[in-house]
Design a protein that fits this description.
4 copies of one chain form a homotetramer.
Chain A lengths: L15 E6 L4 H11 L4 E7 L22 E2 L9 E4 L5 H12 L2 E4 L9 H7 L7 H5 L1 E3 L1 H8 L4 E4 L2 H15 L7 E8 L14 H4 L3 E5 L5 H9 L4 E7 L5 E8 L6 H12 L5 E3 L12 H4 L5 E8 L4 E8 L3 H16 L19
Parallel strand pairs in A: 1-2, 1-4, 2-3, 4-5, 5-7, 6-7, 8-10, 12-13
Antiparallel strand pairs in A: 8-11, 9-10, 11-14, 13-14
Chain lengths: 357, 357, 357, 357
Amino acid sequence: MAATERDASASGGETATASVVGASGFAGGELLRLLAGHPGFEVAQATSREHANRTVGSVHPNLRSLDLRFADPGDLDAVDVLFAAAPHGVAMEYIEEWRDLTDTVVDLSADFRLDSESQYDEWYDGHSAPDHLDDAVYALPELSRGDLAGADLIASGGCNATATILGLLPLHEAGLLEGAQVVVDVKVGSSEGGAGGGPASSHPERSGVVRPYAPTGHRHEAEIEQALGLSVSFTAHAVDMVRGASATCHIFPAETPSKGDLWAAFRETYGDEPFVETVAGGSGTYRYPEPKVVAGTNDAEIGFEVDPENGRVVTFAAIDNVVKGSAGQAVHAANLALGYEETAGLDQFGLHPVGSP
Amino acid sequence: MAATERDASASGGETATASVVGASGFAGGELLRLLAGHPGFEVAQATSREHANRTVGSVHPNLRSLDLRFADPGDLDAVDVLFAAAPHGVAMEYIEEWRDLTDTVVDLSADFRLDSESQYDEWYDGHSAPDHLDDAVYALPELSRGDLAGADLIASGGCNATATILGLLPLHEAGLLEGAQVVVDVKVGSSEGGAGGGPASSHPERSGVVRPYAPTGHRHEAEIEQALGLSVSFTAHAVDMVRGASATCHIFPAETPSKGDLWAAFRETYGDEPFVETVAGGSGTYRYPEPKVVAGTNDAEIGFEVDPENGRVVTFAAIDNVVKGSAGQAVHAANLALGYEETAGLDQFGLHPVGSP
Amino acid sequence: MAATERDASASGGETATASVVGASGFAGGELLRLLAGHPGFEVAQATSREHANRTVGSVHPNLRSLDLRFADPGDLDAVDVLFAAAPHGVAMEYIEEWRDLTDTVVDLSADFRLDSESQYDEWYDGHSAPDHLDDAVYALPELSRGDLAGADLIASGGCNATATILGLLPLHEAGLLEGAQVVVDVKVGSSEGGAGGGPASSHPERSGVVRPYAPTGHRHEAEIEQALGLSVSFTAHAVDMVRGASATCHIFPAETPSKGDLWAAFRETYGDEPFVETVAGGSGTYRYPEPKVVAGTNDAEIGFEVDPENGRVVTFAAIDNVVKGSAGQAVHAANLALGYEETAGLDQFGLHPVGSP
Amino acid sequence: MAATERDASASGGETATASVVGASGFAGGELLRLLAGHPGFEVAQATSREHANRTVGSVHPNLRSLDLRFADPGDLDAVDVLFAAAPHGVAMEYIEEWRDLTDTVVDLSADFRLDSESQYDEWYDGHSAPDHLDDAVYALPELSRGDLAGADLIASGGCNATATILGLLPLHEAGLLEGAQVVVDVKVGSSEGGAGGGPASSHPERSGVVRPYAPTGHRHEAEIEQALGLSVSFTAHAVDMVRGASATCHIFPAETPSKGDLWAAFRETYGDEPFVETVAGGSGTYRYPEPKVVAGTNDAEIGFEVDPENGRVVTFAAIDNVVKGSAGQAVHAANLALGYEETAGLDQFGLHPVGSP
């Protein structure tokens, strides 16, 4: 693809420089894809220790037309915005260094998602920069838009947590989660395992699976609990797709709402959201949220159904884990932090028909 | 494949004749596959109105080596055992006719699965042969083995109900389901839609899906309720495989059992079952039940995990919906009805590695 | 997705109106997706007899955010550019009518791809508007860019022909195809069968296939012969993807070129092409063209290898059949016809990682 | 699955002991699956250095019901038949040792497939036991059945070579390959890469591919040339399946045969073959060979078509690379070597419907 001139009007004519740390991973590559097409950013550096000096296209074949080589992480220069897509544990180690180089760090790892050291220690191993836990703004813009303007340390939400929180948020805001039993059954693609998967993620073993991989105790429960103030019963299954996360939430509220109540709640929460579409019944083939519809986009489809016999509400949330659940959410947060138009660089449509992206 | 001499010892040296009604469908073809390799059966007729006089191999390419043509359903002859794999509603219409032709009818449809007309009417439209509802033995052999010897009308259990019931049975027998909240989240392959799927099951639309298709109120709830005496909150998702059903049950018992309690319960229920394997943790890639492991076989893998934080037990059940959830279960029931060795004709291993059967 | 303001600079600030006939099909939906994001077009109407008055999003779930309903084809208004994505045979019937409504018709069907009635009759049934065969400009811009400026009837090339021609063009231009034996072995996704596939394209039958579906005599041979002046031995296989066409050409030239000769030929032909990337060896996982890398884009990856032992050159061409092989090529041609920047509206990147789009 | 009593009549009532070296790999696991269901073999040992003392089911989940643990290769005991499924290069190192332990070695690697050291050196690195090259019988039973009775060192044919040779054999025997140009375009599943694939075979990278992986110079060309006495132009593509190999051969004979000539040739070659089915046109969905139809079986489907315009014959060959292309072919050869019924232990049917095994 030949790059055309980008329209900088979405960013008010300004262009910020952006660098990506950990750019050879899946989230890092996706950041490069989104930033390369973003009117308000110019990519300065993309780091990778392993692939330093190789072209970005040698790892991410979709970016062959970019004239960009990986830099060594040690050669990182000052930049307007630093996006960090390194494995968990790296950001807390380098955060001081990074803050000397930039005004705005957007971290995609779990390092700064939780508010307090005690929460962190409950789900992960010890934190080496706990002072920053309180500084960081958790970025799930539908939840925390107000805190993102001018934020200088942003912790972009996790994929499964994002899908789950989006599926529960309207009920939360309508007070329907108080005291409710909540079961979350998530189905995810193989890109969640990252670029360096082990034997279980080799194609012959990983193909065709419906594989329980986090039957209980998934770490994303912590983010969900922090965001919504309730404990959910969470189970994740690996299914045969590369991109995509689908969260089905089974909620037993104190009182069962009607379908009309739920439409009202969803409209209230998502009516003005640029990246959330409510899909709940109707005609045709695609009546409920499906991850393949939003693959490659920052969109979330959220839907619901009522089961009056069992006093249950079911909600469905579908996202692309690499975009809305990771790099896209990070760019969305950066747009808000810098005062850009919220959808700048994130306005692609999904595909139809489409297989299993 | 060239047929070798079959070993009739598993059937005590006897061979019964068997015919298959509705043999051009997926369950009908699977019956033919299993009966052709069964030491105790000889296939007499395979009916199909649409394909009458064509070879069975022209529809089921895996059976090209069989020297057998479809017969018109009107030409059905007397036979020892009649397997009916017609769409729902056909068996109730022809049941009197069939009973004149055979001593043993094994029906794979939903027509005779429920015990009473009132139950039937609650979930389906009116029944035209309600007197037989009470006669029929519901065949999920792990549940009703004792009633199957000599049965003359057998209603083979539905695929999603089979997976769910097998996932809950040990808890049921251990008394852990009394008063428990139960959520069942099922993932199924496209063969459940049968051979004549509509636009939503065309490859470009059905590929790569994680598609909620029965968010609430699936008819298999009726079978589950009848079998276990409790109402479950059931939701089914279509995923990208052809064969396979995976049922994840989230159970909130009055008191949370330990993992040891559950091992004991599973051992008690399934310790001697020839077709059930308990898979619950351990090492390696395959630590919990996965449908691809049992594809093509009559086996069920059942597993569990405890979530003490949430007072939850999670069970996983994986079957091949066309075999254990349909044709294999029917043959298993026929083996028991005729006094054959229980596993006769059903002793294939699954495959490894394997993709998405 | 919320539509952001589009940058009209790529079209010199002008905006043309565009309507899509046959908009409920796969190519029609893709035209809508591309035009909705195109700075130089505004979609006026999208016709579908079957879905008239329904929202476009009810058929194409990726376009739910568009505020657009299908119009009845009988209600078509005058428009700047008319894109026709109807089944073969429709355009020749309506061409006179359409030319009264618009200055520029871009037809995606096979109706006007061949230059003469005699060629057409050799491969298809009789043509009802043969006078226009000569008028129409065959649009494979890499081949016919010069003829497209100001063209008023454009016949956009077929998907398999496009992949094959692109794979052979550099050799053709270097004179290496003269007298050469050429075998073309194509692998295609299920979207080529269109939205109304029959039983063979139902998910249970179409999944997992490597299915010879046009062993000999595919109609796209006609386009290839017309474009390159040679007859190729063409065979197509259906494989398990929705989007994508991959053409492997095995060429036995009079004299075997060196790899350097081929690099020179490819550079000569494609060095300045905005949508063609030469991928021939190198390091990493993606060393040759792969359709999944270009899915959703108008890009073509073309590669080659020399087999000196057998006096053979092998070329590989990978495209998205719905974009570069259909709707994208049509928009590219319209850009050239209207004097827009060539890449306007077609500058998306592909995805990585990505499964089977 | 519970093992039923096996019918030893197919082996004349005898049972031989068999051990499998390299049993944790894909071919090794498949040997165990086939031998466990074989009436004439009893599995003695299954070796794996890495997994010694673990259950076979911990690696091959389909074999969980087997009461068998991996033995260390150093603890190998004397046995009637030794099947070796180790990586290339191992068998040549241990061959002397193994021959002290057994009368019959069936090797699945490439080590003894070529007749002479000079051939071997042309395609592989130096051979450490070249004296055995001449002893070994190349086992593609349709080609070398006569040499297999009583053979004591059997080199089982490679998967891609097997598919190709089977697709060309009738033409070879009919003299149609003399001086013919032959192009072979092969599509293969990921199991060909073995259990220890690298980054390119991780699920996110390997899913959805149509990836040229051996554009020219595949080592299986050597086997093909040795078997048929002609050089073929061979190219292999990885496609998105786990099991399966499909070889499409494009042949330009001196004189183009008619379809009737080809039917006669195929009947002559394969009329009595127990594992080869000719599939060439006809009605229905499955008109030509497809690997998914034979997945899990030792069957090969072979078909053809004539392209008179181009003077071309196209043949199609579909096998399961792990069975007919590896472990099944080895067991077939052992059956012949020991004088067992040829199809003993290899009489499974494939599945329908089936996805992508």
